[in-house]
Every structure is written in C-alpha cells, then in structure tokens.
C-alpha cells in the first residue's frame, strides 16, 4: 500500500508556480492577483479562505479578501462581484461557498465573469469542460486528476466508481475521468443516495472516489484488493483531544481499508491541499491569459 501524499505534491506544484511568477516578473509582467469574497464567519469557510490566502503568498501572488456579514443582501453581494469583474487589477476571484440561505448561489455563480471564474463553477466553464474545451476546471476534481497523474495511476480502461453527485466534485470528476487521454479513458459509474447495491458496485472498482460527506462510509467489504481509493470527505467530527475540539474525518474507514489498497489518500493531507493548489494554478492561467484572452 502506498500513501498518496497530497501535501507533498501540492508543495511541489506551488514551488513550480512561484518560479513561473518570478519569470513573469523578470520579463516585466505583473504579479497575479486572486480575490476572495467571504460572507459570514463559518468555521470551515474561514479556514479555507485563510489557507487560500497563505497559498497565494507561497506562490508569489497578490491576494485580496473582501468580507461581508451574513446579513448582506443578495444585491450588495452581486454588486461586489460586478466590481471585481471590471477590476483590471484582479485576475481571478472566488466567492466562498456555502452562502446564507437568503442568497441564491446559482445567481452568484452566474454573475461572475467566466474569464475570472478560477473556481470553474460558471456554466460556461462547466460546459466547456464537459466537451473537452480549454476552461477553468473545478479545483477539487482537477486536484484529484493531478494526484492520479503524479502517482502514475492507470486510468485507461479502469473501472472508476464515484460516490456522490455534487456539482463541485462528483459530477465534474466523473466527467473528467471519462474524457479521452490521460488521466482519463475510464469507465465511470456514479453512485448516489438512490443507488441500489452500492457495495457490489464498489467491489468491482479499480478506483473509488468517495465524495459524499459521510464519515467512514467506505468499508473494507466494499473494496477490491489492489484498488486505489481517493477520499474527498472532510467532515468535522467532535474530538476532545484536539485543540480545535474537532478532527477531519474522511468518507473511508481508513484503518481497515488502507491495508487492502494499492494507493490511498489520507485525510487530512490527501485531496484537501490539492484543491487549493489547483486554485493557484487556475489563477496563474487567468493572469497569463492562457485559457481566455
Ligand atoms: N466550498 C467548498 N468548496 C469550495 C470551493 O472549491 N470553492 C468555493 N468558492 N467554495 C467552496
């Protein structure tokens, strides 16, 4: 069994990005800039945004944080997005999700200029991704693809089972894995809450991507010996032994599943760091106009 070290891979990629930034600056170009909008004070969102800003520093990017309290109106938020759309200093930006219930996430996503949509959530980017055109790819699935590539994991002809059908992970990772090329060419099955015989389906899989947000869902009896497991789960569970009072739990019963696998991602330190690194990659692409002019 080999552990897939997402932390190490993400450090390597951030170093590569920082070198590219140096050569952009040396050639007289400008420093890439990422902006983030954060609404309210959700603990998870605060941590994610702080980590994104730290990653910007590591890559040599400028970052800009725009905060709103959770009673911000939809109109105020949409106005702030429009301002970023037309701000030439900002190459790309994100609106951290989830948003308070009185704000339509879909409306927010569709107001973002798709050329600055480094999260890859705008329907234009999603649509272009699904037909294999250049676009900003959603960060978590793109991070998973980078891990499969860096660990040389065979995907062509592989049976992949994706657990979960979210717009952020399940659907896009299934789409990416079925595209022609590497890492792709896989035969993909997507399972969700209405799927029958989920155990039997998982047992056939060469690769399982677990993204349903249910701690410990994937148990040893669902895994074929030699399979590769990518665990996208990051549920906060109470843990009195931790300073924060919680720990992150993946969707896989790691202790019992890991010995069966050829490769497996830990939680934390697997997919998580890669998500942020993909966002940095997309920001570099936005700044260098490598996807859209
Ligand atoms: N919330 C959970 N994941 C993400 C992400 O990748 N981007 C944004 N903006 N919000 C999220």
Question: How would you summarize what this structure contains?
Answer:
With 293 residues, the chain is an alpha/beta fold. Helices cover 39% and strands 16% of the residues.
How are the elements arranged and paired?
Elements lengths: L1 E2 L2 H21 L6 E7 L3 H17 L2 E7 L5 H12 L6 E4 L9 H7 L11 H8 L8 H12 L8 E5 L6 H9 L8 E5 L6 H6 L3 E4 L17 E4 L3 E4 L7 E4 L4 H4 L5 E2 L6 H17 L6
Parallel strand pairs: 1-11, 2-3, 2-4, 5-6, 5-7, 7-8, 8-11
Antiparallel strand pairs: 9-10
Helix pairs in contact: 1-10, 2-10, 6-7, 6-10
The protein binds guanine.
The site of guanine has 9 residues, from strand 4 and helix 6.
Any overview of this molecule?
- This protein is of the alpha/beta class and 293 residues long.
- 39% of the residues lie in helices and 16% in strands.
- The chain has helices spanning 6-26, 43-59, 74-85, 105-111, 123-130, 139-150, 170-178, 198-203, 254-257, 271-287; strands spanning 2-3, 33-39, 62-68, 92-95, 159-163, 187-191, 207-210, 228-231, 235-238, 246-249, 263-264.
- The strands form three sheets. It has a six-stranded parallel β-sheet.
- Helix 7 (170-178) links the parallel strand 5 (159-163) and strand 6.
- Helix 6 packs across helix 10 (271-287).
- The longest helix is centred in the N-terminal third of the chain and has 21 residues, at 6-26.
- The structure holds guanine.
- Residues 94-97, 119, 139-140, 168, 275 line the site of guanine.
